[in-house]
Structure formats: structure tokens, C-alpha cells
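Journal club prep, notes for RB
We'll compare a predicted complex against what the paper describes. Inputs for the magnesium ion case:
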Amino acid sequence: MAQMTTAQALVRSLVREGVEVVFGLPGVQIMDIYDAFYDEPSIRLVTTRHEQTAAYMADGYSRSTGKIGVALVVPGPGLLNAAAGIGTAYASSSPVLLIAGQVESYNINQGRGAVHEVVDQLDVLKNITKWRSAIMEPGQVPEAVHEAMRQLKTGRPRPVALEIPSDVLPKAADVELLEPEVFPKQSPDPVLVKEAVSLLSKAQRPVIWAGSGVNSADASGELTRLAEAINAAVIATAEGKGAIAENHPQYAGPCYYGHGSAHQVIPQADVILAVGSRLHFFAPVSWAFKPEQDLIHIDADPEELGRNWPEKVSICADAKLALKAILAELEGRSHSSQWSREEIARQRNAAYQVTKEQAPNQVEIIETLREELADDAIVISGIASIGYWSHLAFPVLTPRSYLNTSYFATLGYAFPTALGAKVGNPDRQVVAFCGDGGFMYALSDLATAVQEGINVVAIVFNDGALGASLMDQEVRYRGRVIGTKLHNPDFAMTAQAFGAEGIKLEDRRQLGEALSGALKAEKPVVLEVPIESWTPPFQISPPGAL
Ligand SMILES: Cc1ncc(C[n+]2csc(CCOP(=O)(O)OP(=O)(O)O)c2C)c(N)n1
Ligand SMILES: [Mg+2]
């Protein structure tokens, strides 16, 4: 036991739990927490220029490292500003801890208009966090932080929130800090594992459908070994990219809005093993799972099991533990798979050719990007033309190295998410594929990048438009273009004004050389590439659309 304030107990508990970085923006209600950081230099405090970007950075840090990203914000407007980032982390199954201030305890829910007051503040986060709690006494801190960690590290990884009133933070008491704990992940039911193995070993055309849960469980090694052991064809969703190296012979291709190889591969499957995926296909398709196809679904979230399709075997478990158990049970058994590696390669290449025909310019750019980037470079694919097409055409070679927003499709997240990823991976290349519209959302955090030496490369593909919306008008509204053209600053000059490096290309064919130089810069770089507006994949009818 030692005397400490609530704020000190909070910061010391974070240190004990292994938190290394906090992304935040101060204000009067949380200054005691800032003061407590003064005495804990082991935690790096990154001050962002907007609470939304603090949340994105915490998310990018979490998803790229597997550690817990923390965002710290004032109540009311700070928390509301952070909400789009927390919602993105929720959609993307990312374990972010949001610490929010709160008005004085005597003012909570009084509706008196205390500074930053929002009545029932935690309710705002109800549908974008998996767990929330208010701390009202110093002695509650250790258990609250510990429980937050349990929530973050078990089950489906999703954000959680803690709220602390401003007058509670300086209150002192004898507090017993808790030791960190290794929380056990959920093991699969052995009976269900046996059932899954019996189906998989008899399968003639086994297909593995890999979602984000493979990456977040660090299960790509197990998934790859299983694909080899049963000779399965593997399809990865946009969130599941990196679950198996996309140059691995078992990899059959991506699936994004029905584009990719699923429409060729899925109809051939007799057994489908889906791992860590919502199994949501966005549009009705002819190749949807059929009752005669045996579907085995592994997911950490029981709500996802059986939600969209009838399942033969539903396993609620951590993906790594479930795949390990399946591998152990398979030991010594032979498989019945009829796939040949040439066939799998044919599926992969055919889908790639279709993408190339649909989007020749985008694929040319993406091929240049792949050539210049290291195998383990971390890519944040923005809600932008090159971002979408990279789901289909950018081969991801290592897990946790390709981040998208999943179903939230949050414009503006790419650059700040890249900053968080770079803080967690200072020795790896981190690149954001941005559009001109999306990049402007968080332009101010170029200052954060320069101040903190976070040397990412933001590639801004500039078509002078909110291109996806403009193309929507071209296609669905017969060219009635309104409200979608943009006036932009000179991005290179703007970057230079912030103290970053700015490069403006006259021609996109200069991209390879320019990127190679940008990756060596010892500064954050904004690389502006001129493009035209191109139709996104989701505005093109996929093969097999109904
Ligand atoms: C927060 C948010 N607001 C609006 C949208 C709708 N939206 C999707 S794409 C897009 C245009 C993006 O423009 P830009 O970043 O320049 O990329 P481009 O499509 O031109 O490649 C818009 C407005 C969104 N997805 N998210
Ligand atoms: Mg644009």
C-alpha cells in the first residue's frame, strides 16, 4: 500500500500493465493525469492535434504491434472528437484503451452546463466499445485498469473506455497496485475440434476463409501450416490480408466486395473453414455458401457464429489456439484434397488479371508501390482509389502489416493511423495510401509527425476531387457532378511549411524513384502523386452479383 492520487494510481497502473505510449490532448479536467506522467518517463506521451487522430494513432499502434494503444482525451467534445476513431477501432477489432476525463463528480448528469458536460457520457460510447467503466475513488483504479486489460486481451479485441471525474483525479488514498496478469485466451472445445478435423481431412476441395481474427490472434503461422497440412486454397478478406503470405502457393486470392477469386473458388469448395471473419459479403452473390458445403467457423466472438450462414461446426475460441488444436488433431492423418498448386495459382492469377483489366492504371501504381516497399513494410490503405484497389492488387507478405478500416470506411484515418503504427514500429517502413480529400482531415498532425520524429511516408493520390463520390455521380447520376470537386493546397509546399519533406510529382510514372528516396528521408514525407478519378471496385458489379 502507498499513498497516491487517483491520477498517480492510473499512470502507475498503466506502467505496470506494460503500456509504453499514450496518444492524447490535454485539458483542465485531465491535467492531474498529465502531471502524473511527469514522474513516469517510461511512458511516451504523444500530443496530437485532434482527439480523433489520438484515437486513430492508438488504433494503428495496437493493430500493427499487438500491444495496447491508449488514447487520452478531455470529456465532452474531446470524447466526441475521438468517437470516429474509436468506432473505426471497434469495426476493425482493435484493442484501444480510451481514457476520458469527466466533469466534477457533483456535476455529473446534472445538466447544469458544466464545462465539457455530456449527460450519460459513457452511453455515447456504448455501441463502439465492448466495455466501459467510471472510476470514482483512487482505490478503484487498479481493478478498473486490470479489468480493462482483461477485456482488451481476451475475446474479440475491441476498444474499452475508462472515465474519471476531474475532482476524483487529485484525491489521495492508500492504494494497492495490482500485478499484471497473462489472461488465458479461450481454448476450443475438443469435441468440436475433432468434428472439424474429421470434415477437413475428408475434404476434397477445402477452402480456408481468413479474416482479421487471424492477424489479431497472431495465428498466421498456424493458418499457413494448416493450409499446407490439408492442402487448402486460402482466400483472405481485406481485413485478413497478411494472414497468409500472398506469395504462398496455398494463397488463392483476395475477396473484396465480391471482387477477387472467391467467385471461382467458393463454388468448388466442399468444406470451408472460416477463421476470424464476420462472413459478410456486402452484396448478394451467386457464389454464396450453399447448405451442401460444410462450413466450419472459428471466431473469438460468439455473436459472429452462425450470424450469416448455417454452420456445421461453430468454434468459439482464440484463432491461434483453435488452429493449434486442429493441427495437433490432424497429426498423422492424411488429407483427401484434390487441389493442385497449379490450380490454386491459376485462380489467383485469373483474379489478378481481371483486376488488372478493370483497373490498369491503379494496378500499375500498386505494382510500383510493392516493388519499392520492403516485404514487411506497414501499409495503411485509405478510403481512396489506390486504397481500395490495393485490397485486390497489393500482395501483403507479413501479418499485421496492412491496415484498413473494415466496415467503418472512415475517410481521413490513413495518415494518423500510420503515425501510430510508426510509433510502434520505428524500424519498419510505414506508408499511408491517402486521397487528397482524406489526407486533409488530419493535415494538422503533420505537426505531430515532425515534432515527434514520426517518419512515415504519406502518399497523397491527388485527383482534385472526392473521387469515389464524383465517380458515383458520373455513373449513377448521369454525370451530374456537384459538390465533389476540391480545391487543394500545394501538398508538397504545405508539408515543407510544417517542417516535413514535400515532394510533388508531375507524372505518376516518377512514383517509384520518388518513393525510394522518400523511404530514406529522415523526416516525415508527403509525396503528392497526380491521378485521375477512377471508379472504385464497389461501383463495379462483381462477378456473380445477383
Ligand atoms: C467520415 C467519412 N465521410 C465521408 C465519407 C464518404 N466518402 C467515401 S470516399 C469519399 C471520397 C474520398 O476522396 P479522396 O480522399 O480524395 O479519395 P479518392 O476517392 O478521390 O481517391 C467520400 C467523401 C466517408 N467514407 N467517411
Ligand atoms: Mg481524391
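Talking point for the session: Residues 383-385, 409-411, 435-438, 461, 463, 465-469, 533 surround thiamine diphosphate (ligand 1) (CB under 6 Å).
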